[in-house]
Amino acid sequence: MSWRTTAYRAVRPLLFATDPESIHHAALRALASPMGRSLAPSASGVGDPATNPAELLGLRFRNRVGLGAGFDKDGVAIRGWAALGFGFVELGTVTPRAQPGNPRPRLTRLPADEALINRMGFNNAGADALAARIAEARPHLPDGFVIGVNIGRNRDGGLDDYPNAARAVADVADYLAINVSSPNTPGLRDLQEPERLLALLAMVRQAAPSRPLVLKLSPDLTHNERADIIRAMLGAAAGVIVSNTTTVRIGQRSRSAAEEGGLSGRPLRERQLAATAEARRVAGDQLAVMSSGGVDSAAAAGAAIAAGADLVQLWTGMIYAGPGLIGETVRATAPIVRG
Predict the structure, then answer these.
(1) Rg (Cα) of the chain, in Å, rounded?
(2) Active site members
(3) Cis peptide before 105 (omega within 30 of 0)
(4) How far is the CA of 13 from the CAs of 8, 31, 79, in angstroms?
(5) What is the pLDDT of residues 67-94, one digit of tens each?
(6) Which helix (H) or strand (E) holds 118?
(7) C-alpha dist (Å) from residue 169 to 182, 199, 240, 310
(8) Domain 3-333 bears CATH identifier 3.20.20.70
(9) Portion of the chain with pLDDT greater than 70, in percent
(10) Residue 148, C-beta contacts closer than 8 angstroms, at least 6 positions apart
(11) In this structure, are residues 319 and 116 in contact, taking their beta carbons and an 8 Å threshold?
(12) Which of 52 and 238 is assigned the larger pLDDT?
């Protein structure tokens, strides 16, 4: 653990005294500001963020550590994420039309478990607004900083929402991640059936033919379900993200663990590693594998890469470990090269 992480943990109780969604948006605004961007490299401790570039999805990533979808749905702090030293960022989930999401409060901390529960409901400003923000940031971004956009459907929408969202961001996104696994939009997980997924991938590919497609899966799939989906994806998608948040509650110590929504953070670590290894075993070298869930330390990032991940994504881990986690995980993944 770096001194940055130790220092952050010392001040964390003060941050946690504030409503979690309010402080989340305050942090985004700070990181989007010129002063925040200037302080970002010191806060993350990455050093040279391009020490271990990777060629994946037909793209060059300056390193293997990225920000997971949901942290910056509307691309408020794109330049700030680059300044922190990430190799890539996944924005969204974005829908074709703006929507407010579910009523607040909708984000809960579970400090005893180093976890979060969210029931945000794809709150976002819409695909057109996100595309404009990406286009504005592009000229200011370093080489090898990849922007993915995670797409979904409006709460009252249908399958056409996916190609519509893809079409809106296709000119500015480096890759598209298709979200069929959030537990907070009714009926969304029903799309995780191989035949329906293949039809959906074909629709999105037609809308954005030049962009690599990645599928984000639920951690609540059985081993057989996940394997069947991954086999069906071979030749139809470029990568897979394992995994989204879970509705399963096993052994959580926090009193708020029964809250409705998707659980993220440390409780997902072992399941995420097992899913990562399974995805690599089934896909071989035919899919890029992104590991997302429970990556909250250098050891966890290294374990994900060793299990078969090409890339790792941070989210809840940063809430508990702070921005110093970025530098720790970039260094932990740098010695490992996967062909």
Answers:
(1) 18
(2) 182
(3) yes
(4) 9, 20, 28
(5) 999 999 999 999 999 999 999 999 999 9
(6) strand 115-118
(7) 20, 20, 20, 24
(8) yes
(9) 99
(10) 66, 69, 88, 89, 90, 91, 173, 174, 175, 176, 177, 214
(11) yes
(12) 238
